[in-house]
């Protein structure tokens, strides 16, 4: 990764109805806040974004975009399995919310 290049992330956000929205960002915290406040994607404005269900760091924007496309092609069951694994591995990050 070049010194001037920021890391990029691909993510899935869980919506109120259980749906998953997939996207990419350079700033996960700001992007989640945008989705939650109605300034994010049209889809999450209509389906109420709750929290990250999955977050993966990628080398750069190009890698994140490729990974986003790959995730969007997965069947729902595979997406849910990824989310479950990520949630279990990152349970300690959510402990401060309790």
Automatic annotation (TrEMBL):
Residues 6-81 form the GIY-YIG domain. SMART domains: GIYc. It comes from the Bacteria. Belongs to the UPF0213 family. This is GIY-YIG nuclease family protein. It comes from Faecalibacterium butyricigenerans.
């Amino acid at each position: 990764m070049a010194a001037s290049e920021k890391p990029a992330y691909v993510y899935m956000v869980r919506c109120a109805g259980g749906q998953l929205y997939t996207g990419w960002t350079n700033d996960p915290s700001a992007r989640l806040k945008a989705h939650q406040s109605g300034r994010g994607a049209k889809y999450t404005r209509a389906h109420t974004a709750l929290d990250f269900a999955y977050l993966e760091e990628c080398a750069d924007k190009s890698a994140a975009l490729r990974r986003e496309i790959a995730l969007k092609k997965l069947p729902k069951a595979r997406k849910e399995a990824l989310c479950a694994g990520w949630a279990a591995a990152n349970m300690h990050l959510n402990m401060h919310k309790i």
